[in-house]
Design goal:
The complex is a heterodimer of chains A (113) and B (117). Chain A is built from no helices and eleven strands. In chain A, strands 2, 4, 5, 9, 10 and 11 form a six-stranded mixed β-sheet that branches. Chain A is globular, with a radius of gyration of 14 Å. In chain B, a hairpin with a 2-residue loop joins strand 7 and strand 8. Chain B has no helices and eleven strands. In chain B, the strands form two sheets. In chain B, strands 2, 4, 5, 6, 9, 10 and 11 form a seven-stranded mixed β-sheet that branches. The chains are: A mainly beta (113), B mainly beta (117).
């Protein structure tokens, strides 16, 4: 079982819609969760971090964390064509594995004009 | 804040030569730096983790004698690909993390595209 699992997509949504990206992780002791966006040919850039159960909003982005279900999601409201990219979910290892960041393989998002 | 630079951004070299890639944290001190490799249309693959002043920890399957990592200061880490071959052609990305708390994250450099002829 991989540490972090994501659906590879592609996920296609029309412009203006809500895009919902999901991620599950295996280590119940993990405490830090991150979403990165990676455009084709570029390196990943940090979008959101979340550490507590519930929702965290930043502009059009909302990260949701449910530790009991070991589930992290990213919602993108009012999706724009410029949001088309691969979204990587990253989970930091638990206290005994604190220096490790585990990345999912990414979900490719296509926002159609 | 939290800017990480890499140099060079791209490099073309002949088979058998060595290539050095630099990774710098510009506005923070990086307790830990990470080196990743990414082949086209594939996910990030962690190669090694390095802490300033100590030997790097390599992931399984990564040849430490081929990919030399030096983390000489809190703002600079280097990756040297020794005796490069065409199969080493890839996108090499470094990242850096400041601090050791649960809220610390890692920030990525822009990447170095290596082509070995």
């Amino acid at each position: 079982q991989k540490e972090v699992e994501q659906n590879s997509g592609p996920l296609s949504v029309p412009e203006g819609a809500i895009a919902s990206l999901n991620c599950t992780y295996s280590d119940r002791g993990s405490q830090s969760f991150f979403w990165y966006r990676q455009y084709s040919g570029k390196s990943p850039e940090l979008i959101m971090s979340i550490y507590s159960n519930g929702d965290k909003e930043d502009g059009r982005f909302t990260a949701q964390l449910n530790k009991a279900s070991q589930y992290v999601s990213l919602l993108i409201r009012d999706s724009q064509p410029s949001d088309s990219a691969t979204y990587l979910c990253a989970v930091r290892g638990a206290i005994y594995n604190f220096n490790k960041f585990y990345f999912g393989s990414g979900t490719k998002l296509n926002v159609k004009p | 804040g939290a800017v990480v630079s890499q140099h060079p951004s791209w490099v073309i070299c002949k088979s058998g030569t060595s290539v050095k890639i630099e990774c710098r944290s510009l506005d923070f001190q990086a307790t830990t730096m990470f080196w990743y490799r990414q082949f086209p249309k594939q996910s990030l693959m962690l190669m090694a983790t390095s802490n300033e002043g100590s030997k790097a920890t390599y992931e399984q399957g990564v040849e430490k004698d081929k990919f030399l990592i030096n983390h000489a200061s809190l703002t600079l880490s280097t990756l040297t690909v020794t005796s490069a071959h065409p199969e080493d052609s890839s996108f090499y990305i470094c990242s850096a993390r400041a601090g050791t708390s649960v809220t610390d994250t890692q920030y990525f450099g822009p990447g170095t595209r290596l082509t070995v002829l």
